[in-house]
Amino acid sequence: MHTHFYQKNIYYQFVDEALLDFYLEKLFPIMYLDILLKLKHMFHIFLIVYLDSSNI
């Protein structure tokens, strides 16, 4: 179970880093970058918790 979660986490982290960064940089001005990084961090934590709980 842990290995399966780890693999899914790596996949979603890749999607998060590749796609979310791209869209955020294109859609929002620089002055919102700090807020966006905090939101992204919160989203990533939420995603990990959600994926972990979905395997139970």
Mean pLDDT: 69
Poorly predicted tracts of residues: none
Q: Determine the number of helices (DSSP H or I, runs of at least 4 residues).
A: 2
- Termini gap: 9 Å
Gross geometry: elongated
| CA gyration radius, whole angstroms | 13 Å
Order of helices and strands: HH
The main pleated sheet reads as: none
> Strand portion, in percent?
under 5%
The overall strand count is 0
Structural class: mainly alpha
Amount of helix:
over 70%
What does this structure look like?
The protein is mostly helical. It has a domain at 31-56. The protein is 86% helix and 0% strand. α1 (2-27) runs antiparallel to α2 (33-54). The termini are close together. 0% of the residues are buried.
Key traits:
56 residues, mainly alpha, 2 helices
Give a concise summary:
It is built from 2 helices and no strands. The protein is an all-alpha fold.
What layout of secondary structure does this protein have?
Blueprint: H1 2-27, H2 33-54
Helix pairs in contact: 1-2
